[in-house]
Amino acid sequence: MIPRLDYQDSLSPTTLQFLELLGRSAFRGDIEKSYASRLAMATDNSVYQVVPQAVLYPRSADDIAVMLTLAQGPEYATLSFFPRGGGTGTNGQSLGGGIIVDLSRHMNQIMEINLEQGWVRAQAGVVKDQLNAYLKPHGYFFSPDLSTSNRATLGGMVNTDASGQGSLVYGKTSDHVLGLKAVLENGDIMASEPVTGARLADKLALESREGEIYRTLYRIGRERRADIEAIFPKLNRFLTGYDLKHLYTPETDTLDVSRVLCGSEGSLGFITEARLNITPIPRYRTLVNVKYDSFPSALRNAPFMVAAHALSVETVDSRVLGLARADIIWHSVKDLIQDVPGKDLQGLNIVEFADTDEGEHQIKVTELCRRIDELLAKGEAGIIGYQLCDHLPSIETIYGMRKKSVGLLGNAEGRKKPVAFTEDTAVPPESLADFIMEFRALLDGHGLDYGMFGHVDAGVLHVRPALDLCDPEQEVLLRRISDQVVALTAKYGGLMWGEHGKGFRSEYSPAFFGELWEELQRVKGAFDPANRLNPGKICIPYGSGASLVSVDGPKRGKFDRQIPIAVRESYTRAMDCNGNGLCFTFETDSPMCPSVKISRDRRHSPKGRAGLMREWLRQLAEQGFDPLAQEVALQSGGLSIKAIIDKTRNTLARARGQYDFSHEVMEAMEGCLACKACTSQCPIKVDVPSFRARFIQLYHARYLRGPKDYFVGTVESYTPWLAKVPKLVNFFLEKEWAQRLSAKSIGMVDVPLLSVPTLAEALRDDRARYFDLAGLEAMSAEQRQKVVLIVQDPFTSYYDAPVVRDLVRLVTKLGYQPYLLPFLPNGKPQHVKGFLRAFARTAANSAQFLNSLARLDVPLVGVDPSLVLCYRDEYVKALGTARGDFQVLLPQEWLLSIPAPQPKASEETTAAEPWYLFAHCTEKTAKPTTHGDWSTLFDRFGARLQPVSVGCCGMAGTYGHDAKQVDNSKGIYALSWAEPLSRLPKGRCLATGYSCRSQVKRMEGEKLKHPLQALLELL
User: Fold this and answer.
1) Residue 865, CA atoms < 13 Å, CB-side half-sphere
2) CB under 8 Å to 266, separation ≥6 — which residues?
3) φ, ψ for residue 54 (rounded to 5)?
4) Each residue of 460-480: pLDDT tens digit?
5) Which of 360, 361, 420, 899 is 20 to 30 A from 54 via CA?
6) Counting Cβ atoms within 10 Å, is residue 951 exposed (0-12), middle (13-18) or buried (19+)?
7) Nearest CA to 498 among 443, 538, 549, 461?
């Protein structure tokens, strides 16, 4: 039995007193102080980990002003505040031990657009891709790009002065900021934009914090101009902390405070709004994907590409390409980046041209291709081939692969993982190749593996050395390499922090800025004299005696190494999460983690759940408890009377409010839909359903289960019995009082009705009902080639029987003899509820039977994707080699394996409205060819199929029937399913998942067909 875990990193009395006062004030946001909530904010995409005292989610700038005004009380002088956006920083920029203030949950509105003047005004919590989705219908976009654009917020982009691909043309975030709204440390709200003349004089005369800021910056801009020009690097990526270089324009005597706020990492104020200039979307875009025999060849050839007036040149090395090949993303790009026969592809330059004039665009592309052909003919520059791509969706797909490469590096095998700490060095582009060769020699000297990719046109390359930070010596090595890279970039006239900000690397600032360091300290002092906003980052107030943070700051490895190696390796899909944050994507039509989309709570994300799991395992280790030994015991042992008594006592203590960190972990796990999107969509392959099931099993070794778990976990046992009297069961289920009783006693709502007629009745006279193993074995191999065995699942067979009936009819019409296999439990519901001992028995029994059939070389076909895919994933993990080699095919997989039918094609059929496919989220993430497979089939049947891009429907097995989750279930449906189903003819809409069809029936009152039913109609 797991022990009670009572550690929760207690809050300070001052913090508790402040939060109580804040709760009684005009503050309208959310206040969270649970250990789980704070742990979710303890990490970002860096190696660091710092647990905050509390997390606040303001709803407006006024909320932040209220918070900071209250904090002016002398009793709260020790409190510090840390602004946070998407949490995608790679250097711990938003981490801190004080109060985290997250602007992403509520402050995410686009407030105003002015097309005539070409600008948009938005709150700091708006995600970059969200803004561009809003701007696209108007023909504009916000041009600074970054790999985390689907979860990075505008506030974070401003605070790190973010940029990425295309920065030579489009610049950085600061180049597009027309004005900012910020809340200062004392609670004052300040608006900033370029000011000159009388307006500047008025600002300089203010007797306020804002006036002090203007006077300090005006003096520095005028008096230190020569020093600034001498010290600030002449690079496209001049990110240095406080941008004194662009603060003041002497020719017009103009001061722009926004330029200092950009890149300040929240150390000067809370950015709450930004007015941004927007760029017309280029009408013509082409990628030239140039392939090389080595990475150095790609680097050295980059200036040749830049000289062709390209928008951008992005370089990827062979390691990143190799990781991409092993990821789901490769399916979509493999035809766009093909191997060159007889050549070894070791490097890639992705060259983009983007223009508004077609003629000019074609001239650029044609000229570059001509020059590449010349190099190819001469065998020069290491070029082995190239491909053109001017299909916009394909261009976005290639960039999707490039953007995902950041996370893919973290999916390397072994304990050593490429980590971010030297990943954004910037040097003059003409020196990049030599710099990288020396950088590689440095890393090779330490015997390290690494991956490289980046923006060679701007002299920025992302380099992530592979380290095992659970090893204290490797942590020391991180410091040594950091120091060496700082010296190396200085040698080449560059920066260590060219793109991703300083964060815990701020300790290197004084040496870099030299005599200007005092002026930066005075800037910090003017904005934040008490050093309370993100203290220690970027700079400290002059004369304060405060210290800068260091690369030696607290790291995840310090906590993870407390977990025994065997446990870490067993729970690798939780331990390996590197904080990449792809699970935070704003895209509602992405299947990735619907629970975080609807809750906007980072605990309810794969990253959040993985972090909680890591801490839970650490606390178990701290108490000397071995979860692996307990799992073995649970698999083999029974339940004693003493264990039942102990579980009852523990459950009663829980009801009385006794704290156990396991309860906080359980709350996060219960919110998971077990949709498995994370297992393929996450670049690290964090597998929440697997470690969730293991946690639930261990949790309930200490605490009693509720009736809902047994109701769901045993559904495959009792449903066949209920199906013997379906009308009687449905008679009660149709009564409102029965559904209320179910909700109150079991915790299940909208319990579905059984199929009437039953599957047996629908196939009463069909040979398919009469499966005969002996007869099948007696058949010749040729006879068995015309046999198909249908594997039943409890949901389709008993609750949606017409689908199975129509599969039988379809198989028959195609000239094959189907046979329904006897219903045998699959075990998926047991796994979802953590009944892992029972699941292992069910899986072993089912695998034994299916393997006996597989030896006959007859196709096995199952209908429901979730259960069919369980045979391929959970069975492998539970049984290992004992699983055997049987394969259960999905309908489309079997249909594609047989000769194409000869449908009754007609003008009416081909001219008819297309069918619309709503694929099951587990299916399309585990099997990325799903849309293409069904489209191919419909084409074979003489019809058109149009896949609809949607996320999760919100039902996810029994999740949508859970009384605690029903509101979230319906909310998830509204995110992406409701809109297309409101405008498309439901009679032409198809859904592959039983749960999806069930959810649509609940929400729309109509049940969608399965695609195979549409194919049957076409025949």
Assistant:
1) 26
2) 82, 83, 84, 93, 94, 159, 533, 534, 537
3) -165, 165
4) 888 889 999 999 999 999 999
5) 420
6) buried
7) 461
